[in-house]
């Protein structure tokens, strides 16, 4: 029986799961955790609503709806953790409307004051947010992206009829009714306050001045607009144009006016301003947390079969090329032969149509450029040099042209003599593919649902070279290409089919010459499928949890053997290092004039100096190698090339942890570093973060149900993830399932109910959140008792990632101008870094000292309260290597002692990883930075690295700089006028560095 497209969608995950045996990672559930109950007396970014009779208040605290007497008191919980409920609005008869993320989209619900009568009022794949009851209780206003951007809608409760009042290109938020029920006030893009009547007439009331944002509009006395006005570090409640509440951290939700009195939330409290005085309405609520974290299973890799096979491609005669162990390999007849290798970064090969050559990217000239390898002679030559990075190349079917990406996500086409820009800047697009006639190029690109919330679906973007048309095509309704990397689209050699991965399995669809679907997608594989390549036009080669596999289109599957193995190199010979001083990772003072004896990659002993040493570091201080516990090596890994590992080491960072990376790029790099074929720090990581139905970054896994979650966890288990990260749009129920089914540590962007379910950590002080704001940090950078109490009671880690630490460049740019930075950063990265640093302290600054202070004070409260703070940076969204030191300097600037700050980058993350790192003591790995100065007195000295050791292997800084100190500058090909398709026609066509996208929500 043929299934309809919709039926296929509903059965995809189920079919895949049935054909997949249970993973050892998912057998059983987590053991019952010990816990305790935490009393909350303040709330971070809570909103409040008042019942029509004035007797009750409703608040949203730790993603649940609670009610309490209007005079204050103990709060009673109405919704459970899975409801993920926020923004209550009282209606008649004690009915409370709220928004809920229970099913993976925001929908409007109502519930009674007694906790009964829960009803869902909206449904579907679009979001419906921020409900507000009309004065007569017969209607609900809300906003939804169902029309292409966030517009104001009204729901008639009696009939269920929905009427749209505003639409494209609005990004409306938080509608509230006038007292007569005839008008609705709302904010637009945080930049204005508008009002619309129920018959659709619209008026602008207030426009935000530059550098100011508006939130939470409502009608005040005399129908004046009231709203929260926010500047960096400052939030005010405004009536008309007059600030009526200043000097408080006003939370940005609609205030409740009653004559001249106003009820609002600020400083973690519910407050009532009346008759010129302000009174707090006290509340308390009790929530359970898990206090026992899972045992960490991170381990040092020693060797085994190569699983890090990156970006495989197949020639017309069946040879396979791929990247592994920091080299390119050619697989033919069951034997893998190394083609390239060395200290540079060679990646993403593609065969010429005749199979005699490969084009690939290499940074051996200093930046990634295209190279052509003759497979018979082994000779290499530059293919078509350009002033920008050239990555992920694909030959046209006739072999006369190559399509590639640059560092900004622009697609280019070159014929060796000239190059032309084909697309505008795209946000982390996938690898291009060509139609058979060479007239169309297609690739994966994100298409957001709205400008207000950046998430969308990863679709097929086809570009007609003749007409300039750009066309987005969903692979299936409301579904995403699995990742925008090597998961398709990929055109078959005969031009009749396009293959892609959706929900972790492969699909093919018939297409015409321009890529237009000519039928329904058909599922081809029933196991975890990544990195598709065509083997002829009737079979696919792909990666299955570290194995190369081949599947015919009718489902016949075989394994392709490559025979590659790796092993950790023998540890260096015994060395004695004479240091002028050292810090062991715990002491309050340096210990002076010592010998550190290193053998078999570990510290054998530390003794008073005597005799002659093998290494004279008598003028230096030894400290444990630093650990950056949050970065994404391959977010721009191809653009950075081999520079990245050198940069980390040059600044004394000997271990990095990635909570999200393209999985096969991650595994390949992890194996190459462990095998010694790539220079850099120890690398502990996960693959793509497990996300929900909508995605933004190219390395997020859209996951739609428990069946698919099993596939994601199976990949994690078989590829040996060191941790898992669940991302922004994953529903609470699936987050809980991931915790119960996983045996490795987990983290996310959320602190609750993560702290109840047993998550191990939260990334960032409060970054991207599906709410559009955080429940751990306010818009002015502050956190309150609820957040600090949950972190300290549960033992969850928090990784602050202090992006605002860039504000400190207003007085000290030494990290920016340092030779290590100038040499090891790619030119375009360095130019942006300098420009950003130069703006700090000016009106154009991208960071705020006031917000930074709040972030650090939050981290300090957790740290001093016995909580668990670990340093991370989110590099390369912040600056690799230098941001680690800028974070440490920010911690000290606003309250940490240098010793406390250093421990967040040594002992604490080592404990998170479950490894004996972060210390200089007998038996510990010899991961040591040798610095000039005393970091316990001045934390800036931690950046003065002169030598660095990882596992007993010693590197001196000049050697780390040498490969990039004098880059070659080849003559570049001529740039022709861009194709018509390069014109930027969509607001979402931008690179990830265009704004601080990690932390703007």
From TrEMBL:
One of its GO terms (molecular function) is hydrolase activity, acting on carbon-nitrogen (but not peptide) bonds. Residues 824-953 form the Amidohydrolase-related domain. It comes from the Bacteria. SUPFAM superfamilies: Composite domain of metallo-dependent hydrolases, DPP6 N-terminal domain-like, Metallo-dependent hydrolases, Tricorn protease N-terminal domain. InterPro entries: 6-blade_b-propeller_TolB-like, Amidohydro-rel, Metal-dep_hydrolase_composite, Metal_Hydrolase, TAT_signal, WD40. Belongs to the TolB family. This is Component of the Tol biopolymer transport system. It comes from Lentzea albida. The lineage of its organism: Bacteria, Bacillati, Actinomycetota, Actinomycetes, Pseudonocardiales.
């Amino acid at each position: 029986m043929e299934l309809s497209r919709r039926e296929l969608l509903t059965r995809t995950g189920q079919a895949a799961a049935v054909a997949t045996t249970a993973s050892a990672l998912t057998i059983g559930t987590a053991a019952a955790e010990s816990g305790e109950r935490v009393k909350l007396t303040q709330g971070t970014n809570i909103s409040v609503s008042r019942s029509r009779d004035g007797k009750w208040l409703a608040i949203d605290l730790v993603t649940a709806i609670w009610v309490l007497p209007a005079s204050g008191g103990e709060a009673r919980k109405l919704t459970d953790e899975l409801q993920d409920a926020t923004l209550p609005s009282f209606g008649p008869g004690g009915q409370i409307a709220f928004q809920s993320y229970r099913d993976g989209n925001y929908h409007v619900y109502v519930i009674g004051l007694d906790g009964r009568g829960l009803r869902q009022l909206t449904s579907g794949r679009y979001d419906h947010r921020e409900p507000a009851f009309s004065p007569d209780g017969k209607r609900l206003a809300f906003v939804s992206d169902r029309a292409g951007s966030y517009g104001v809608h009204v729901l008639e409760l009696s009939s269920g009829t929905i009427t749209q009042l505003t639409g494209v290109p609005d990004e409306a938020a938080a509608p509230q009714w006038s007292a007569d029920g005839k008008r609705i006030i709302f904010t637009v893009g945080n930049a204005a306050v508008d009002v619309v009547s129920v018959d659709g007439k619209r008026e602008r009331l207030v426009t935000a001045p530059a550098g100011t944002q508006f939130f939470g509009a409502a009608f005040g006395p005399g129908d004046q607009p009231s709203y929260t006005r926010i500047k960096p570090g400052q939030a005010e409640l405004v009536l008309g144009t007059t600030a009526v509440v200043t000097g408080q951290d006003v939370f940005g939700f609609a205030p409740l006016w009653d004559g001249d009195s106003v009820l609002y939330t600020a400083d973690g409290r519910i407050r009532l301003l009346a008759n010129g005085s302000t009174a707090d309405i006290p509340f308390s609520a009790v929530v359970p947390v898990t206090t026992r974290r899972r045992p960490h299973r991170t381990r040092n890799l020693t060797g085994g079969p190569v699983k890090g096979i990156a970006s495989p491609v197949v020639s017309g005669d069946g040879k396979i090329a791929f990247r592994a162990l920091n080299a390119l390999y050619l697989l033919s007849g069951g034997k893998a032969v190394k083609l390239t290798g060395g200290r540079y970064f060679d990646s993403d090969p593609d065969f010429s149509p005749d199979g005699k050559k490969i084009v690939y990217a290499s940074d051996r000239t200093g930046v990634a450029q295209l190279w052509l390898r003759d497979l018979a002679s082994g000779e290499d030559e530059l293919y078509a040099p350009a002033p920008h990075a050239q990555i992920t190349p694909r030959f046209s079917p006739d072999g006369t042209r190559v399509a590639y990406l640059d560092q900004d996500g622009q697609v280019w086409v070159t014929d060796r003599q000239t190059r032309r820009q084909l697309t505008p800047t795209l946000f982390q697009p996938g690898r291009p593919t060509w139609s058979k006639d060479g007239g169309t190029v297609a690739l994966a690109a994100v298409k957001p649902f709205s400008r207000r919330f950046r998430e969308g679906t990863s679709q097929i973007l086809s570009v007609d070279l003749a007409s300039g048309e750009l066309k987005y095509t969903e692979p299936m309704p409301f579904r995403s290409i699995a990742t925008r990397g090597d998961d398709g689209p990929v055109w078959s050699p005969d031009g009749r089919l396009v293959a892609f991965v959706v929900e972790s399995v492969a699909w093919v669809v018939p297409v015409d010459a321009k890529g237009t679907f000519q039928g329904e997608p058909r599922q081809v594989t029933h196991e975890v499928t990544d990195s598709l390549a065509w083997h002829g036009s009737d079979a696919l080669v792909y990666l299955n949890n570290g194995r190369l596999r081949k599947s015919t289109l009718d489902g016949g599957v075989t394994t392709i053997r490559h025979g590659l193995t790796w092993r950790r190199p023998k540890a260096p010979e015994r060395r004695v290092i004479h240091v002028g001083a050292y810090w062991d990772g715990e002491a309050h003072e340096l210990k002076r004039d010592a010998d550190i004896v290193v053998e078999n990659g570990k510290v054998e002993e530390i003794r008073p100096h005597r005799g002659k040493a093998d290494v004279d570091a008598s003028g230096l201080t030894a400290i444990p190698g630093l650990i950056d516990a949050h970065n994404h090596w391959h977010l721009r890994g191809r653009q950075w090339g081999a520079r990245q590992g050198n940069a980390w080491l040059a600044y004394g960072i000997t271990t990095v942890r990635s909570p999200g990376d393209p999985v096969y790029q991650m595994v390949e790099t992890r194996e190459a570093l462990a095998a010694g074929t790539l220079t850099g720090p120890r690398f502990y990581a996960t693959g793509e973060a497990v996300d929900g139905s909508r995605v933004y970054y190219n390395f997020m896994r859209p996951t739609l149900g428990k069946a698919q979650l099993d596939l994601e966890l199976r990949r994690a288990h078989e590829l040996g993830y060191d941790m898992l990260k669940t991302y922004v749009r994953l529903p609470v129920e699936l987050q809980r399932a991931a915790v119960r089914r996983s045996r490795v540590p987990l983290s996310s962007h959320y602190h609750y109910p993560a702290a109840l379910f047993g998550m191990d950590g939260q990334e960032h002080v409060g970054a991207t959140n599906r709410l559009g704001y955080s429940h751990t940090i306010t818009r002015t950078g502050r956190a309150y008792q609820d957040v600090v109490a949950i972190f300290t009671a549960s033992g969850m880690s928090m990784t602050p990632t202090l992006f605002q630490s860039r504000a400190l460049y207003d007085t000290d740019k030494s990290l920016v101008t340092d030779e290590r930075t100038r040499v090891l950063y790619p030119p375009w990265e360095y130019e942006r870094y300098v420009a950003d640093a130069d703006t700090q302290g000016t009106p154009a600054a991208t960071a705020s000292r006031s917000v930074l202070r709040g972030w650090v004070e939050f981290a300090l409260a957790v740290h001093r309260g016995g909580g668990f703070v670990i340093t991370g940076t989110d590099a390369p969204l912040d600056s690799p290597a230098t941001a680690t030191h800028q974070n440490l300097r920010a911690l000290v600037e606003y309250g940490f002692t240098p010793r406390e700050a250093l421990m967040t980058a040594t002992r604490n993350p080592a404990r998170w990883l479950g490894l004996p790192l972060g210390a200089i003591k007998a038996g510990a790995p010899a991961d040591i930075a040798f610095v000039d100065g005393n970091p316990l007195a001045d934390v800036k000295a931690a950046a003065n690295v002169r030598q660095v050791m990882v596992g007993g292997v010693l590197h001196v800084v000049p050697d780390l700089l040498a490969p990039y100190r004098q880059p070659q500058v080849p003559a570049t090909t001529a740039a022709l006028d861009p194709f018509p398709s390069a014109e930027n026609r969509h607001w979402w066509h931008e690179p990830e560095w265009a704004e601080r996208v990690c932390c703007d929500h």
